[in-house]
């Protein structure tokens, strides 16, 4: 009888030891999986924070100004803005009839093809105009799309210009 009791106690003890070991392994496996998931989650969060930081840095570096201005405001810009580039987007014939002093002439139809000629002005104030403001509005969109940062659009056009022009 003593042998049976000792044997029963031994079986119960071994069952408990083996059972506890299995639970430990299961907990360890679960814990390892949880740790892996946490690592991946932290990695994703860190990547997102890095991307957000880079985007924030880029936005700080490239603050763009696109503004419609009247002919009066354009005159003030010409008088008060050092290094202002003036871009006349009318045809060559219209340009020759009269244009703003020091204006560069590139027809609105050719601006995209001739961007290389004005790329050096991406971070310099540019005043664009045409006869009525329609074509220069089209060019404004082209310049925005190509990352020109400071663009003033004389939305009334030169037809409303009451100041001196060059021929």
From TrEMBL:
SMART domains: RHOD. Transmembrane segments: none annotated. InterPro entries: GlpE_sulfurtransferase (IPR050229), Rhodanese-like_dom (IPR001763), Rhodanese-like_dom_sf (IPR036873). It comes from the Bacteria. Residues 80-167 form the Rhodanese domain. PANTHER family: FAD-DEPENDENT OXIDOREDUCTASE, OXIDOREDUCTASE. This is Rhodanese-like domain-containing protein. The lineage of its organism: Bacteria, Bacillati, Bacillota, Clostridia, Eubacteriales.
């Amino acid at each position: 009888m003593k042998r049976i009791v000792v044997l029963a106690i031994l079986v119960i003890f071994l069952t408990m030891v083996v059972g506890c070991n299995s639970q430990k392994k299961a907990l360890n496996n679960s814990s390892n999986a949880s740790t892996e998931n946490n690592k991946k989650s932290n990695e994703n969060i860190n990547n997102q924070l890095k991307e957000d930081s880079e985007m924030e840095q880029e936005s700080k570096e490239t603050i763009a100004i696109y503004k419609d201005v009247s002919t009066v405001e354009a005159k003030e810009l010409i008088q008060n803005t050092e290094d202002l580039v003036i871009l006349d987007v009318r045809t060559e014939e219209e340009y020759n009839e009269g244009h703003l002093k020091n204006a560069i002439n590139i027809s609105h139809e050719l601006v995209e093809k001739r961007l290389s000629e004005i790329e050096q002005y991406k971070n310099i104030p540019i005043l664009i105009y045409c006869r009525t403001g329609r074509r220069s509005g089209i060019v404004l969109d082209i310049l925005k799309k190509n990352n020109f940062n400071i663009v003033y659009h004389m939305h009334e056009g030169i037809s409303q210009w009451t100041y001196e022009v060059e021929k």
